[in-house]
Amino acid sequence: MKETGASQGKDARVPKSEQTRTLILETALRLFQERGYDKTTMRAIAQEAGVSVGNAYYYFTNKEHLVQGFYDRLAAEHEAAVRPVLDGDKDLAVRVRGVLLTWLDVAEPYHRFAAQFFKNAADPESPLSPFSADSVAAREAAISIHRRCLAGSDTKADPELAELLPQLMWLMQMGLVLYWVYDRTEHTGRSRRLVERAAPIAARAIALSRFRALRPLVRQIHEVLVEFLPGAAGRVA
After folding, report:
1. Rg (CA), the chain
2. SS3 label, residue 50
3. Biggest distance spanned by C-alpha atoms of the chain
4. How far is CA 66 from CA 22, 23, 44, 131, 160, in A?
5. What is the C-alpha to C-alpha distance for residues 154 and 147, in angstroms, rounded to an integer?
6. What angle do CA 177, 104, 152 make, to 5 degrees?
7. What pLDDT, in 10s, does the model give residues 111-142?
8. Is 188 left (phi over 0), alpha (psi -120 to 50) or beta?
9. Dist CA 203 CA 172 (whole Å)
10. Cβ partners under 8 Å of residue 222, min gap 6
């Protein structure tokens, strides 16, 4: 059985239950990469992790729950890594650029098997969809980062658009994620270049949205996205 980083050097300060949960998750991610998501069973994950099948199901009720654990981990890692960006420069373009590049940095180790998840996440009915009810925790964590990105900037946005703009910024990030999944350039260089080019445009569009003449356009764009993106309507009060 292959050992993961978690099994090689356990931190005594971390509860055993959390160590076991981490071990199962890391083992699953490795097997998803090696065998593919569809060909990896909970029994195989338990065997590789050195735990009983019942114990694996205790921490994760199914494979979809395991992937949700991955989503939550990625969101938590992004939240930690992006703090210097959110505490730094007030220029919105710099902040948007930093938020998105930081996500690419955090996600880089998982790029090799991202397409394995995307095949399932692309199904609107799948609980793995970023728009599903099962993904709400990771989705809201990401939207919260964009909300803080905007609030901490020196760009003035109309208060009436306060709830719309972070959601639109998150949807922009989802577009980047889709591009990143298919990006086969070295170190996903084209995805990074896309961020460099898109961040100033996004910041400029947000700055212009405060003008009364453009507010109806922003709302129309948002309404279209809410109507046609699966599960998006549930995020709007």
Report:
1. 19
2. coil
3. 63
4. 10, 11, 13, 17, 38
5. 13
6. 95
7. 887 877 777 777 777 777 887 888 888 899 99
8. left
9. 12
10. 164, 167, 168
Cβ–Cβ under 8 Å, residues 79 and 145 = yes
In this prediction the pTM is 0.79
**How is residue 184 written in tokens?**
């086969």
Whole-number Å distance between alpha carbons of 174 and 185: 19
Q: Name, in order, each residue with C-beta under 8 angstroms of 28's C-beta and a sequence gap of 6 or more.
A: 40, 45, 60, 63, 66
Q: What are phi and psi of 57, to 5 degrees?
A: -70, -25
Instruction: Give the residue, 229 or 214, on which the prediction is more confident.
Output: 214
Q: Which among 207, 197, 205, 204 has a CA at the least distance from the CA of 221?
A: 205
Report which secondary-structure segment, H or E, holds 177: helix 164-182
* Of the candidates 31, 26, 34, 29, the residue with the CA atom closest to the CA atom of residue 4: 26
Q: For the chain, how many residues are written?
A: 237
Tell me what pLDDT residue 1 has.
Answer: 40
Distances (CA, A) of 73 to 22, 26, 102: 10, 11, 15
Query: CA angle 21-26-30, nearest 5°?
Result: 150
Q: Do the Cβ atoms of 68 and 134 come closer than 8 Å?
A: yes
For residues 136 and 190, the answer to whether their CB atoms sit within 8 Å is: no
What is residue 128's three-state secondary structure?
coil
For residue range 165-192, list pLDDT tens digits in order.
898 899 999 999 999 999 999 999 999 9
For residue 82, the number of C-alpha atoms closer than 13 Å in the C-beta half-sphere is 29
In the numeric block, which tokens belong to residue 13?
Answer: 């300060």
